[in-house]
Amino acid sequence: MNLPPIVSPSEWNAAREELLTKEKEATRARDALAAERRRLPRVDVDTADGPASLPDLFRGRSQLIVQHHMFPGCPSCASMADGFDGFAIHLFHHDVAMVKVSRYPIDELTAYNERMRWKVPYVSSMDSDFNYDFGVAYHTYSAYARGT
Length: 148
Known about the structure:
There is one protein chain. This protein is α/β, with parallel strands linked by helices. It has helices spanning 9-38, 54-57, 75-81, 84-92, 106-116, 130-133, 141-145; strands at 45-47, 50-52, 63-68, 96-102, 122-124.
């Protein structure tokens, strides 16, 4: 194992100061990159009430849980969603909003949400890059509609 050399306290302080300068440069670069990311244009998702931006989905809360659903009626997704209403109200009172998202037309999602009597909003990311941004876009609506 290659360990760093043992040096005097003054040599260690000089090395530490040099590293600190590099760390501050890296922090400033990361902050600049984050600011650039925040200035990226946005794409709305569709909700039962019309188009909504990502900040709109927070509904005044500081945190947001986004639950990806493959499609309305997916047995695994639906069984999870059956329990959301029970804890979503607690999240809401602790400054956390929640939504379900699928790459399906909003009218189908809204109808399914109403049929299941779920209260957690269901939003459509069908005409956006929302799912791709989070790495969860494995299928498209047309593939499921064809049964493939």
